[in-house]
Specification:
6-stranded parallel beta sheet, 14 helices
Length: 381
């Protein structure tokens, strides 16, 4: 690898406020691959997207602040190119010495990126001699920097990509049993594919979050003013029929009149929500029941919070579920952006076997879909 120009796709789509990074989780996740390549004296050329600039340059979505933070973490300068293709990028690559790192400007400043335009992919590929995809979180997208480049260069998986795929494979394809899945979040419709794919594999399926309200209404329970997907009632009934006694739902709820901090709250059985009130978290009895189902599990897959964890009054259910998973002794895979954020916010970080950075990519893997960014690596291999 020494002296080779290695084009690395990372997911450095970090949150920015006033030009400052507010959460460096994705940046830190990229460091092992970048360090390893630099230590092998490769000339490391990093590509990433940031936000949704709609195919046009947007100074607010420049990756320049990311280059500065990467430099601090790597302990050596990270050069920055004002564009990801063309003379500017080529000149920046030409200045690299063995072991140097260069970050290219946001690939989404070009509309051709999201269109997986072959000519744009070829121009990106011309900057390197080897391609490494380390951006698992972007690998459900058929974009030029994710898929297209792999058609023109020898393609390999980076350390983060490998760790994500190994964790998902271990949890879903070769699990230690019993396998318990906890699925939360707001909508049944967005997770219907996940629920059905998991049902073919799991021993227990626990449903929480606002999506549980749709299951309650499908059973004929009154959920007050709670969010319900009326168009997904038949889907909920279908999942219930298929799951049978493997399905576990909350039995009590933390309710309030508004989804705001400082509200008066009540804990009620799920079918006795006061008129005008809404379910915003699972209650303590539900946490106990979920903990009982998780206790003794061989593998636990957790995707989606149990309530509106961002508001303290409605965070107890998610914290309780997380605590139960953490102390279960099971191999634990925490997946999805909201769940990872909850783990961090509620002080549960470091207590699980693997926390996925994948977001949508993790969800699509959990639905049984092949990810284009992974498929191109298999083709190249």
């Amino acid at each position: 690898m020494a002296g080779k120009r290695v084009l690395v796709r990372e997911d450095l789509n970090v949150p920015l406020r006033d030009g400052r990074i507010t959460d460096e989780t994705r940046l830190q996740a990229a460091l092992p691959t970048l360090r390893d390549l630099a230590q092998r004296h490769a000339r490391v050329i990093v590509m990433s997207h940031l936000g949704r600039p709609d195919g046009q340059p947007d100074p607010k979505l420049s990756l320049r602040p990311v280059a500065e933070r990467l430099s601090a973490h790597l302990g050596r300068p990270v050069a920055f190119a004002e564009d990801c293709v063309g003379e500017t990028a080529q000149a920046a690559v030409g200045r690299l010495q063995d072991g140097d790192t260069l970050l290219l400007e946001n690939v989404r400043f070009h509309a051709e990126e999201e269109a997986d335009d072959p000519d744009f992919a070829r121009r990106l590929a011309a900057l390197g001699e080897v391609y490494v995809n380390d951006a698992f979180a972007a690998s459900h997208r058929s974009h030029a920097s994710v898929v297209g480049v792999g058609r023109y260069l020898p393609a390999y998986a980076g350390a983060l990509m490998l760790s994500e795929l190994e964790a998902l494979h271990r949890a879903l394809d070769e699990p230690r049993r019993p396998l318990v899945a906890i699925v939360g979040g707001a909508k049944v419709s967005t997770k219907a594919g996940v629920l059905r794919h998991l049902l073919a594999r799991v021993d227990v399926l626990l449903v929480a979050g606002a999506m549980a309200n749709t299951f309650f209404k499908a059973e004929g329970l009154d959920v007050g003013a709670s969010f319900v997907e009326d168009e997904a009632l038949d889907e909920a009934r279908s999942v219930q029929r298929q799951a049978g006694d493997r399905l576990g739902l909350p039995v009590d709820a933390v309710c309030a009149e508004k989804m705001e901090a400082g509200q008066e709250t009540r804990v009620t059985p799920v079918g006795q929500v006061p008129a005008g009130w809404m379910i915003l978290d699972i209650g303590p009895r539900s946490v106990e029941l979920f903990a009982e189902r998780v206790s003794g599990a061989g593998t636990v897959v957790w995707n989606g919070p149990a309530g509106v964890f961002e508001i303290p009054e409605f965070s107890g259910g998610t914290r309780g579920v997380g605590e139960a998973v953490a102390r279960s002794g099971a191999y634990s895979l925490v997946g999805g952006g909201d769940t990872a954020a909850a783990v961090e916010q509620l002080g549960l970080a470091g207590r699980f076997s693997h926390v996925s950075t994948g977001g949508g990519a993790t969800l699509e893997y959990m639905e049984g879909k092949e990810l284009p960014g992974v498929a191109i690596l298999k083709e190249a291999g």
